[in-house]
């Protein structure tokens, strides 16, 4: 029996415990609320939402058929597709539309067809090679006073000898451009340098070079680079509906790194757009891991069962009780190892399961989920883009992307491309199940430590697994031809001409020059 005094002590202790727990809960809720509020304020402070819509020099004025001057789309403070992500400090413009006056356009004037804009000259990664850029523009006969417009695919700066000169020339020519990963790094380093927010005694050589380049730029040049969008939307070229593919597409886009197919551009990840080289498919990886584990377990079970038979047989042989008298004279059998499950065996099994599985099962669902990757251990994003665009029934609903960034893959401009579903880290596509190998590997890297041998082995593995080849039209044009490594600089020139039966035809040409020593 508990004494009255001890009972009162227990009740007081219970009340004290309840009060303490209640206080802790209320304090936690308060801290969460204030923390979320602070995060929201911080995200808001990191963005300059008020962008001058007349900033046409950075290609930041929009256009469509009804409204040529809309405000650019600013980057949402907390967005990563449909998932929350930290905001990008110093990144003010995510998507901008090319001013309508720069888009090649024809209008009928009586029986005459006249152009109000001449050509779009889109140049790959310049990387500080001013004289080479001037040489290339001279080769294509660039004339911005007569309707030509220059667009740069990012990475104007670093590596080469004259980054300020390249930026100034772009500004003088009223060029448009997108923000590349090198601009992004240099600008962020410069901002951090001013705020003393990085460890100066631990700077890597490449980071130090980027900071040095950022410091060499004038204030106006840094402001111009800071205002560049991550994605530049050229849109549909008016009257192009009767042009041959891909230039009859509903949209033409410029991005430095790449885009994830089937994801709306306003939901793309800014980091991925500036940095991606390949795509990883989590659903596909989980499926592959499950299949491999299942096959390895089946192989182990088979070996275990066989070894049990061998063990029992050897026991009877040793005891002389084996029913087959001839076997009693033989040496005991050795145990067997489980069959090694190779990647090719896993791929074949995955293909079999997908072919046999009903379309409504998990095996054939959710393969639109792709994660941008700056390495090459996934499917090259441009291959996925070409495959997906070719699978869209109506050509006018497809989109062209013109990009830079990937000097290792080399120039990617041939109109005819192989459409495939890459063995390995890639989902199936019901519309097109053909497979193909990787384009030629060019030793022209901008891959931050990636080894050539690793890339070559990856390509050989894919080529070995190639089964079928299907041809399609290119919708992803890669223009980085290695200027940053002292090799070549390339321009894609888009122009229009009158069609024999009336209307217009959109076509393109490619010009390349060697880097000036």
From TrEMBL:
Signal peptide limits: none
Listed SUPFAM superfamilies: Metallo-dependent phosphatases
CDD domains linked: MPP_PPP_family
Region (Disordered): 313-336, 425-448
Gene Ontology biological process: polyphosphate catabolic process
A Pfam match: Metallophos
Protein name: Metallo-dependent phosphatase-like protein
